Amino acid sequence: MSKVLIIGAGGVSGVVTHKCAQLPEVFSEIVLASRTEAKCKAIAAQLDRPIETAQVDADNVPELVALINRFKPDLVINVALPYQDLTIMDACLETGVHYLDTANYEPEDTAKFEYKWQWAYQEKFKQAGLMALLGSGFDPGATNVFTTYIAKHYFDEIHTLDIIDVNGGDHGYPFATNFNPEINIREVTAECRHWENGEFVATPAMSLKQSFTCPDGVGTYNIYRMYHEELESLTKHFPTLKKAQFWMSFGDSYLKHLEVLGNVGMTGIEPVEFQGQQIVPIQFLKALLPDPASLGPRTKGKTCIGCVVKGLKDGKEKTVYVYNVCDHQACYQEVKSQAISYTTGVPAMIGAKMMLEGKWMQPGVWNMEQMDPDPFMEDLNRYGLPWKVIEEPDFDLLP
Ligand code: NDP
Question: Residues 239-262, buried b or exposed e (16+ Cβ, 10 A)?
């Protein structure tokens, strides 16, 4: 029986709130707060049990502290934007409340996400007897747990990791992003980095692609190598990894639009002066694009996200693939959201459940792969994201 405070009221928040509301035996009370309270109320109106809502500016620590002291939650689930991670962690420390998020901190004026800022809170959380669980979405999140699960049950030592994120969904728009457009475009246009022989190697964004055929008839897609935040923590926590890469599928239309928008400066994060006002191009672009939370009813198709690990077992080389397939329309029927928000929101709820049930609770700042994967994997099956294992899959990835 615990009280949670969920901060942020976008696409992911809608799913987390629905999923927590479905489990009153764990999440006995729910408060949903965000910058725009009307969005919290709209989510609350979809639920079949009452929750409280509130307004908060999560960039402002005193406001957050006042909100937390008013509602006295056991845990804060941060599904606002990565820019708010540190202010919410500060407020949790000041009020003595546990913390969970789905994306690592990124300063608003530099498109570079790294764990160093949040890892720097390790001692403070430990000394306060509080836990902060970082990156409890799908990727990062379930992909970290998949990797740990494979390493624990199938290998003596793991050597290569390929995380493959395919979205075979179609929303019918020529260009739209499936989660916050600003965060999505900053991530996709960033220089690619992958782990090779003890260091990160940089290559131009989207410069390496291959074709990947998903299992279970999801289809064949072009996947592009890019940097993704879980590579940083996974290569730190699995030092036997010689190579680790992240791949994501993109359609030709998405890439063409992104190229043109980039060429004309619409994806820039530096403010420009327009008719006497300072505007940030990517923020203006966000205002023009469809709200990701509105894509739910239109999106058809499936996602397929998983991890391919190679390594040694009893002296022999082997390959293991663990993946989940998620259907956009089925998600919409259950929680009024498309599968990208669903695949993020369900692991956020499960991470919170692991903490509140004491299965993962320990003071300090932790990444998902540092926890026992087994109870989390059981709950993925139970709460909407079933997974499968293929030993020796018949596809060949680029070496
Ligand atoms: P949205 O843009 O849909 O929602 C963000 C919400 O945060 C909005 O309701 C917004 O308020 C609110 N917010 C923003 N700034 C503040 C602030 N200063 N104070 C209070 N509330 C604020 O994003 P998504 O739901 O798509 O994504 C949420 C998070 O999930 C992001 O951090 C994203 O990176 C992460 N994510 C993680 C994934 C994973 O697999 N690990 C995958 C996808 C997303 P308003 O409505 O007023 O704008």
Answer: eebebbbbbbbbeeebbebbeebe
Lowest-confidence pick of 175-189, 211-225, 239-253, 335-349: 175-189
> Cβ(4)–Cβ(31) under 8 Å?
yes
227: pLDDT confidence band, cut at 50, 70 and 90?
very high
Q: Give the C-alpha separation, 269 to 259, whole Å.
A: 16
Closest CA to 146 of 134, 164, 129, 130: 164
Give the residue whose CA is nearest to atom 13 of ligand 1: 80
Q: Which residues contact 318 (CB under 8 A, 6 or more apart)?
A: 154, 155, 310, 311, 312, 391, 392
Q: How far is ligand 1, taken at its centre, from the CA of residue 179, in Å?
A: 8
Other CB atoms closer than 10 Å to residue 57's CB: what's the count? 16
Per the prediction, the chain carries an average pLDDT of: 96
Q: Is the CB of 64 under 6 A from ligand 1?
A: no
Q: Is the CB of 14 under 6 A from ligand 1?
A: no
Asked if pLDDT for residue 182 goes beyond 90, the answer is no
- Identify the CA nearest to 322 among candidates 196, 144, 178, 93: 144
Task: Give CA–CA dist 2/29, Å, rounded.
Answer: 6
Per-residue model confidence as pLDDT tens digits over 41-53: 999 999 999 999 9
Q: Is 63 in the pocket of ligand 1 (CB under 6 A)?
A: no
The pLDDT, as a whole number, for residue 338 is 92
Q: Whose CA is nearest to atom 42 of ligand 1?
A: 344
HSE-CB at 74 with a 13 A cutoff on CA atoms is 15
Residue 107's pLDDT is 87
pLDDT band at 257 (very low <50, low <70, confident <90, very high): very high
Q: What is the pLDDT of residues 100-130, one digit of tens each?
A: 999 999 888 777 789 999 999 999 999 999 9
Tell the residue nearest (CA) to atom 41 of ligand 1. Answer: 137
Half-sphere exposure of 10 (CA within 13 A, CB side): 18
What is the 252 CA–ligand 1 centroid distance (Å)?
Answer: 26
DSSP structural state of residue 265: T
Atom of ligand 1 nearest to the CA of 291: 3
Contact residues for 51 (Cβ-Cβ < 8 A; gap 6+): 17, 21, 29, 30, 31, 32, 44
Write out the CATH class of domain 142-336: alpha beta
